Each structure stands twice: as C-alpha cells, then as structure tokens.
C-alpha cells in the first residue's frame, strides 16, 4: 500500500535560529535528536522512509519557520530562498518528496505572490502556516489575498501549531502544559474557528484548510458547536452556512499526524468522513515507524485505509 505523509518537517541551517523559542519545551536529548533529523533530508530520512514503507513525504519547514521573522522584507526573501531550496530537494527525489511552501505572511501581498510562485513555478502543493504571524491570525482582513490565491490555485493551507502570541492565564504556574502536549492544540483549534467566524470560508467557499493532530480536537465537538451557536449571542456574526459544523465538514481536511490511536481516528472518520482524513507522521517529533504501523493496523476497512494512506492526498494535492 502506497503511503503519503503530509506533516513531515525539515529545517535549513540558515533558519534553525527561528526555532530557538520552541527549544525549552522539549527535553534536551529529544530536542537534539529532532534537530539533527530536521536538518537531514536525504540520508537517514530516506533510509527510514524505506524501512517504514513511507513512499512520499510532503515536506514543510519546521515551526515557527520564517513567521518568527519581524522584518517583512527579510521574510519575503527568506521564504523565496527556502522554497527554492525545497523545490531543489524535490527535483532530486521527485518520487519521494513533495512540498508545502513557506509564506511571508508579514507581507500579505508578498505572501500571496509567493504562494502563486510556489505552486505554479516550483510545483509545491500548497503552503503550511505555523500559527500566528507576529500576533496576526489567518482571518485578518489583510490576509484575504492569500486565501483568494489559495482558492484560485485550488491548493490547501495547512495550519500547524507554534508557540502562542501570548500565554493564557489558565497556564499560570503550569508551563509544563505549554507546547505540543496541550496548549498548541487548543490554540490551533481556536485559530481554525476564527477562520469560520471570521468569514474566511464565506468569502472563499472552496478554500481548503488542513489541520494536523487528528484535527486538533475539532472532530469531537461538531454537535456542541452547532448546539451552542444556536444559543449564543452571535454578536453580529452571520454564517452563510448557518452551522459551524458545515464548514468543518466542507472546508476542513485533517491529518493523523502525531495521533497514533484508533479511538480518535474512528471518531474523526464518523464526524468528517474518510474522504477528509489524510496520513501524516509529524516526523521527526514522532517516529515514522509508530505512525506507519498504526496506519497499517488501524481497525478500519481497506478502502478507508487506502484513502487515508494515499488516495485522498493524491486527489487533494494532485499527486499523480
Ligand atoms: Mn508538526
């Protein structure tokens, strides 16, 4: 069975520094190991893919990437450089790698242009966005140009976590919960809901959002979102599709990255349908072997397994 992974990270020596704010989250040995693997694209990575039967990695720059840059012009230049680098890696191994571009969202028009260049000239499959950009989220009015371009190109934007713009009071005295174990998922789910209530999918009804980590919990709250939206003061917000779940079923695609457990997979399949679930490993923060073994042994039909392993990715990303 062909397997395509959609959350497969790398970094370049030039851009390692942007990850410094994330370093304190991890145990030192685990961080050192992940950092080494992020920098390797073709040695250990390809060998491990072969061992685990992971045919294709859709590569993305590791969080937070150039979104940590505060100078818009520098972000534009660095995005172009890293996307050119990524296209070069893919060109050397076109049957093993695809890629999501990095966008200089600090310059919204520049980001839309870089998305267009990434897809049309470099052959990338969309873009991966690491949470907020200097406190700005993807529902910001200035970033409608990026969604407009994504919809026109018919490519997804993959919303991936990063450290929050600030720290919620509820984490006071509990820094151990800040990071991928908990706070990143809550932040990312909230960011995704901003896109719904911020009107992004009303303005661009065919825009496609990817979330990792089995949908950051959102598949499990569709009914409650609809029920409470019916109760809440809408504060002037109108949803063309009326119910929040309609957007999560229509515009959202999720990957299994970093969640190798049958119960949430089955729940997500029941909530969203198997056509909207794709495989990912979250390499190098999870082992490829754990992820591919989970996919091969999950208690689902062979038809659903093939969709999640490769068919949905081939369709969504137009991989031949
Ligand atoms: Mn990840």
Question: Mind explaining what this structure looks like?
Answer:
Helix content is 43%, strand content 10%. By secondary structure, it is of the alpha/beta class. It has a single domain, classed as Alpha-Beta Barrel (TIM Barrel). A five-stranded parallel beta sheet has the order 4-5-6-7-8. α3 packs parallel to α12 and α5 (108-120) runs parallel beside α6 (144-153). It is globular. The model has no long low-confidence stretch (mean pLDDT 97). The structure holds manganese (II) ion. Residues 7, 9, 160, 212, 257, 282 line the site of manganese (II) ion. The site of manganese (II) ion has 6 residues, from β1.
Total E-strand runs: 8
Coarse morphology: globular
What is the name of the CATH superfamily? Answer: Metal-dependent hydrolases
Kindly give the count of domains.
1
Bound molecules: manganese (II) ion
CATH architecture: Alpha-Beta Barrel
Strand order of the largest sheet: 4-5-6-7-8
Strand content: 5-15%
Low-confidence spans: none
- Oligomer category: single chain
Structural class: alpha/beta
**Helix count from the secondary structure assignment:** 13
Major β-sheet, in short? 5 strands, parallel
Mean of residue pLDDT? 97
Cα gyration radius (Å): 18 Å
Separation, N- and C-terminal Cα atoms: 15 Å
């Amino acid at each position: 069975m062909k397997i395509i992974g959609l959350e497969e990270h790398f970094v370049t020596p030039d851009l390692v520094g942007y990850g410094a704010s994330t370093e304190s989250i991890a145990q030192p040995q685990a961080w050192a190991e992940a950092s080494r693997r992020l920098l390797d694209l073709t040695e250990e990575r390809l060998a491990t893919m072969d061992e685990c039967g992971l045919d294709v990695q859709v590569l993305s720059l590791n969080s937070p990437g150039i979104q940590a840059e505060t100078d818009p012009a520098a972000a534009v230049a660095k995005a172009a450089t890293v996307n050119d680098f990524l296209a070069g890696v893919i060109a050397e191994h076109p049957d093993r790698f695809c890629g999501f571009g990095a966008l200089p969202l600090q310059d919204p028009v520049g980001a839309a242009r870089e998305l267009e260049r990434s897809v049309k000239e470099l052959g990338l499959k969309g873009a991966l966005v690491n949470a907020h950009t200097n406190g700005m989220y993807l529902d910001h009015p200035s970033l409608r140009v990026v969604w407009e371009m994504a919809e026109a190109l018919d490519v997804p934007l993959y919303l991936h976590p990063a450290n929050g713009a600030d720290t919620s009071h509820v984490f006071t005295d509990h820094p151990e919960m800040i990071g991928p174990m908990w706070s990143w998922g809550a932040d990312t789910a909230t960011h995704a809901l901003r896109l719904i209530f911020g009107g992004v999918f009303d303005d661009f009804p065919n825009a496609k959002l990817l979330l990792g980590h089995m949908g950051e919990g959102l598949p499990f709250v569709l009914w409650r979102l609809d029920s409470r939206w019916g109760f809440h003061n809408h504060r002037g917000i109108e949803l063309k599709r009326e119910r929040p779940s309609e957007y999560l079923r229509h515009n959202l695609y999720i990957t299994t990255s970093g969640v190798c457990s049958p119960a949430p997979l089955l729940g997500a399949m029941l909530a969203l349908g198997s056509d909207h679930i794709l495989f990912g490993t979250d390499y190098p923060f999870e082992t490829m072997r754990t992820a591919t073994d989970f996919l091969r042994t999950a208690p689902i039909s062979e038809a659903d397994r093939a969709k999640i392993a490769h068919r949905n990715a081939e369709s969504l990303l137009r991989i031949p």
